[in-house]
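Lecture 7, part B: from sequences to assemblies.

Below are the input chains for today's worked example.
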Amino acid sequence: MPKSILVVDDDVRLARAVLLRLSAAGYQAVHADCGRAAIERAGDRVPDAVILDIRLPDMDGFDVCRHLRAMPPLRNTPIVFLSANASREDRQRAAEAGGTRFFAKPCSPPELLATLKQLCGAECAEPARPTFPAA
Amino acid sequence: MNERLVEPDPRAGVPGRDDLHLGSMPTPRLGRRLGRWFIIALLVQVGLSGAALLALQSPWRTQARLGSSNGIAVLAAEQLAGCLLHPSNPLAHKALDGIAAMEGVRFAMVLDAAGEVVLAGGDRDRLAVNGAGATPPAWMTKEGPESRVSPDGSTVFVEPIGKDSKHRLVLGLADTGAPRAMFDGAIAVGAGFVGAAAIMMPVGYLRLRRSTGSFQELLRAIRRLGKGIAPDPVALTGEDEFAYLGVAFNSMASNILAAQRELRSANSSLEVRVQQRTEELRLANESLEHNNTKLAEITSTALRFTDDVAHEFRTPLAVILEFASLMQDGLAGSVSDQQSQHLGFISDAARDLSRLIDDFLDTSRLRAGRLPVHRQRHSVDELVYSAWTVLEAKALGGNVRLRRDIPGDLPPVLADLDKARRIVINLVVNAIKFSGPDTEVLVEARAVRDGVRISVVDHGPGMAKADVDSLFGRFKQTATGLKGGHKGFGLGLSITSELVWMNLGAITVESELGRGSVFSFTLPAFDEASILRSYLARLRELPRSTRIRAARFQAPPGGMLPEDRLTEFVADLMLPRDLQLPSGDGTSVLLLGATESQVEWRQRLAAPGLPDHETAETQARPVVVELEDSWDPWEVSAELLAELARAPETEGMCRA
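Predicted structure of the full complex, as structure tokens:
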């Protein structure tokens, strides 16, 4: 069973790149393009890790993080912020909201993968196909 | 001044200032006036005396006198003429002598109808009509008034006597002439005196009464004025001294009241002016506050805008980088070597752009004074390594060999890791940019006095000395404010020098044409003395002489380490020139540079994030060191450390 990663980003292009990268690394990656969708998907299937953007169309990443943290199965799930907002304040707010790590866009793919591996265990040997939500 | 004087009874009539003029008032001349009074009195007296004398000397007066003084003589002569009037009768002569001997009678004669002397008595020598039968002088016997005066001034009195009244008695009066005139004169003078006194005394009395009234009035007015109440004008008429005094007093009171009015008016206009100024000041203050708020809003809006722009830039950049990287990694199908190289160029350019955005963002934050520093203990190896992945990729793209030489025995340094890392990246990227292909760029670190020097050595074209000097001048300028980038160095080198400054370091350039350049920067070693000296050396580059305040904080019993709180505090509020000096033993030294006042210092320390106001107050007893125009960082740091060591709350906790 591959590890499942929920990628929350409203930029579909970037999300696709991350999903491709994760799939290539053997993760099962699920995309959500807004905060509400992210919370829904996390409720449907508890992810092993979450990659979360800050600027989302309906709510900000900090709120999404707090919502996810409020769900008991996700209390200890690694939540990695990946955002173009990379000020110290953003980092601090992310930490306060319950974020596990913080990466600034653009980030180095090897670093991100290394962090994920460290946070949720070894990647799968077989690459999995990424799944996209219905358009 | 009597305060009541400025608040007179409003009901009291205040004479206008122009009512009376002291200047136009005639000056009283007492002597002249007394002389005039004396002359008047004298004239009255002389007049009265003259009148009295005239009265005394008048014919009716003479008549009366004679009538009164010689009545007895006439009576006697009547009797004599009746019964004894015969010249042969010796008794008649004796009787006549008796009459003549009577007081006031000098002589006595009896004339018959023919005017001849029948009898004579008394001073016959004077008569020149001795004996009977003589004829008296014509003036004596001529018809007319019965009383007449002789040419020598004596008076005779003629009275018909006898049965038929044909005889006449002539009496020569003895009291005529000088004695009598002197007596009359004396009486007249006396009468004059008495009369003059009788006239002048009531006049004097009346005048005295008037004067007393004037005096009382003047006294009342003076008392009112003394009590600060405006007196009515003193109505003293005439030309006496009191009138003059009244005029002078009115003038004085009027002057005092006018001065008082002027003073009141000046006072009130002063109050008005003070109020106006206060209001102006308040408005200016308000406007200043408003402008400040507006400025802060504008700054914060500008910063937000910059952040937004940076965010909008970064997102597509991330997409470019991600897909270039994916393709390069073969995740989207196989790529040729050339394609892979081209994808590398795309990634490299995208990363350059990303760094540019970082520099741009930092520059705008720096300009707004909102670029916080987080200096902490780091090792140089950790610092250089954190930049290495990026640099290697960059070097690969530039076809440049990248080497590092970091000895293992370097002391730890105080640095803001992110900023120090950016310095290294900027310098290395710059070196790669100017290096020819297949040359080497070396990053080396060496221990120096007070810290570590990190150098980036390239073998590019190098620079002429003039260019180096100009570049170095630019670095110096950037210590006080950010200027535009140097030609050919872009924004990167400009922000780099700022970042070095914020890390309490110094940047230097050595270059030689044709041999390459060495860009070096220093970081202070992580010990108090080194940090302080580096800090002071940085402060010294500020254009003005300044003062710094230093205080050591200690963890409150059972409380959090102040360092944790101070870090937050510093991150939010501090300017790059301020320094927090964590020592790791539960204490922390805080140095505030520039021109903070004591109040600001306390306010800043009492800001949210610190334990509580009281703790901040008591712990933040600052050691103030004034920096004069010329000072030596070594001396000042030694002094500062000594002061901190001496401070009661930090005693023994700081190496002097």
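Note for the exam: The radius of gyration of chain B is 68 Å. Keep this in mind when comparing with the next example.
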